[in-house]
Amino acid sequence: MLTEERHQLIRNQLAADGKVLAGELASRFGVSEDTVRRDLRELAKAGQLRRVYGGAVASAPFAAATLSQRSGHAVEEKTRLAKAAVGLLVAGQSLFIDGGTTNEAIARAIPRDIELTVATNSLGVASALTDRPLVKLIVLGGRYVPDLGTCVGADTLAAVAQLGADLFFLGSCGLDVARGVTAFDSAEAEVKRAMAKNSGGIVIAVTNDKLATAAPYRVAGAEAIRHLVVEKTAPPATLADFQSQGAQIHFA
Amino acid sequence: MLTEERHQLIRNQLAADGKVLAGELASRFGVSEDTVRRDLRELAKAGQLRRVYGGAVASAPFAAATLSQRSGHAVEEKTRLAKAAVGLLVAGQSLFIDGGTTNEAIARAIPRDIELTVATNSLGVASALTDRPLVKLIVLGGRYVPDLGTCVGADTLAAVAQLGADLFFLGSCGLDVARGVTAFDSAEAEVKRAMAKNSGGIVIAVTNDKLATAAPYRVAGAEAIRHLVVEKTAPPATLADFQSQGAQIHFA
DNA sequence: GCATGTTTTGCCTGTTCATGCAAGAAACAG
DNA sequence: CTGTTTCTTGCATGAACAGGCAAAACATGC
After folding, report:
1. pLDDT tens digit sequence for A103-145
2. Residues with Cβ within 8 Å of residue B63, at least 6 apart in sequence
3. How high is the pLDDT of residue B119?
4. Where does the pLDDT of residue B69 fall: very low under 50, low under 70, confident under 90, or very high at 90 and above?
5. Which of A159, A229, B18, B217 qualifies as a cystine partner to A140, CB 3.0-4.6 A?
């Protein structure tokens, strides 16, 4: 039984069942569970599955990848950031909200009694807002990317181009004073740029681990940030840099 | 039974029924109620449901109150219809799927190992398909209507106009041989008409209570229906009428 | 053939995680 | 108000886990 052979069989079962159990695979392949765990670890590293306790599941289930995988990490922090971020909202405003777990937390934190117009390309944000009776929700369609949880592409850009918003809640992947706001994906960055262009101000809420990091694709310069929502424990020196670029700092 | 698996099943039942009971889940999963409560707590923390005494309810019912009321109605029937309807699918096909609880059930019933391209204006359908790795998902954006759970309007129509599909799964509000397929909402009907125009064939899955009823807005004539999926208990006379108009009948 | 280095695998060790149980708190019903 | 159900918290146990180590299988060079 070749290693590669096992990998293929694991992929097959994942495609069919959506999940695999480490112990079951071990007995089926006639190898130790350690070997199976190693296989799963490698496949997970290659992004072909998502490792869970006891086995693995198919990667990027919407609510699972966007919310469990990443958000298992710092749920409380993001919830706190979200609460502080919605404090910036004024009734009657129109917003762009793009993807990311922090933005989903913000969407959930939006109170039920505030009237808003929200345009989003994130299914997570959209679904969080479906039960807000006073929120007029505009879904920005396009090609859906499971890894991002958002729609991107020409259709999305065209939809954004027809809209304008007072604020843009930008889900940031990297945030650095010198390099500005950056994203990991080209198409994603494109949509963010379009939203930034058509909005009156950018709001970014980030956990500490995003501060002073950068991703390949540039979205906007640091001077474009109007409001920056950060944790109380964020390094003051970094914050001072952003402040000198015109950003208003808000602590969660 | 993986923890993640239970979470997924809970999410599924919430999407289908709008609520879950802790005790019922415990016996169904074969675990203690404490474990289920822990699951529910975690999912609630991630914003995927709202915890209530005795169980949990959907936090953001894609289908608002009106829709979730209906969805509790005939869950088993709709699941059976959905299973029969997905039997019509062929790998590589492209589909339009619009809104409605039956269509959401169909989306959930789509197997994980079939390659498809799906364009939908329903957030419920879209979110059901986000964890299908082989499904290329195109979200048709626009103004979101909570009562329908779908996007409608000029933006949606424009997006539909740029696409074509082999089949159109039409969520029907009324179905009558003389009046054809009808909808309750003008904007909704408009989108359905556009999808019908750009698709190679219409598939309709309906419970008995929709048969031989009509709503104000006309979507398509009875002769436009290629496949009609119905319950075994559907009145044969009505079915014969549709059959004479060229529809192929499939029993769930 | 022999020696050497690499890869794969299984086993061991300490650690982490999921689970069920028990006890007290809170919510509900009558 | 009282009893019951449900919930949270803490804790103990066993399963699953990562990392280190050594043996076996394999390839490579002399």
Report:
1. 988 998 899 899 999 999 999 899 889 878 899 999 999 999 9
2. B18, B70, B71, B101, B104, B124, B149
3. 98
4. very low
5. A159
Q: Which fold has domain B3-58?
A: Arc Repressor Mutant, subunit A (1.10.10)
Output the pLDDT for position A48.
86
> A3-59 sits in which CATH class?
mainly alpha
Complex ipTM, two decimals?
0.76
Query: What architecture (CATH level 2) is domain B68-251?
Result: 3-Layer(aba) Sandwich (3.40)
Per-residue model confidence as pLDDT tens digits over B188-213: 999 999 999 999 999 999 999 999 99
Query: Considering the domain A75-251, what is its CATH architecture?
Result: 3-Layer(aba) Sandwich (3.40)
End-to-end CA distance of chain A: 54
Residues of chain B whose beta carbon is less than 8 angstroms from a beta carbon of chain A are 2-5, 7-8, 11, 45-48, 59-62, 64, 112-113, 121, 123, 126-127, 130-131, 133-134, 136-144, 146, 149, 151, 155-156, 159, 162
- Binding residues for strand C (Cβ < 7 Å): A 1-3, 6, 30-32, 34-35, 38, 53; B 1, 3, 6, 31-32, 34-35, 38-39, 53
Largest pairwise CA distance in chain A: 64
- Where along chain B do its domains lie? 3-58, 68-251
